[in-house]
Amino acid sequence: MSKTFGVNAPTLAFAARIAELHPQLPAPNLGTNPYMPNELSLCLASVADVEAWREALHVPVDQMHFGAHGNGGLVVEFEAAVEGVVVRAFVLFRSDELAKAIKEADTA
C-alpha cells in the first residue's frame, strides 16, 4: 500500500519554519521521501549555499564532507539531525582533475 502525502507533514512543516526564521537562506531544491518521512534533502547551487545552511542550522563544521561522487563529480555536503529531522544539504559539481585526485587519495 502506498504511503500518503501526510507522512511528510512534520518534515515539510520544519522546512516552512526554517523559511520563516531564515528567509535570506539560498533557496534549495527540496526533497522528501514517504518511506523516510523524517529526512529532508536540500540540493543547493554552490558550496557557499551549503555553508549558509550549515551556519543557520548550527551544524558543527566537522560535519561537512567533501569527496568524489559519481562519474567525475564532486559533492560538498553535511547531514545532521535538527529538531528531529535529518537534514542533508549538498551541492554536486564536476571537476574531473580534482575528483581523480580525491579518488587516488582515498585509495592510497
Cross-sheet strand order for the largest sheet: 1-2-5-4-3
Number of helices: 3
Strand tally: 5
Unreliable segments of 5+ consecutive residues: none
Shape: globular
Distance between the first and last residues' Cα: 47 Å
Q: What structural class results from the helix and strand content? A: alpha+beta
**CA-based gyration radius:** 15 Å
Helix/strand order, N-terminal first: HEEHEEEH
| CATH T-level topology | Beta Polymerase, domain 2
Architecture (CATH level 2) name? 2-Layer Sandwich
The major β-sheet equals: 5 strands, mixed
Helical fraction equals: 25-40%
Average pLDDT = 90
Estimate what percentage of residues fall within beta strands.
Answer: 25-35%
CATH class division: Alpha Beta
Number of domains: 1
Structure overview:
This protein is an alpha+beta fold. It has one domain (5-107): Beta Polymerase, domain 2 (2-Layer Sandwich), CATH 3.30.460. It contains 3 helices and 5 strands. It has helices at 9-21, 47-56, 96-107; strands spanning 29-31, 39-43, 64-69, 73-82, 85-94. A 5-stranded mixed β-sheet has the order 1-2-5-4-3. A hairpin with a 3-residue loop joins strand 3 (64-69) and strand 4. The longest helix is centred in the N-terminal third of the chain and has 13 residues, at 9-21. The radius of gyration is 15 Å and the shape is globular. The N and C termini lie far apart (47 Å). 17% of the residues are buried. The mean pLDDT is 90.
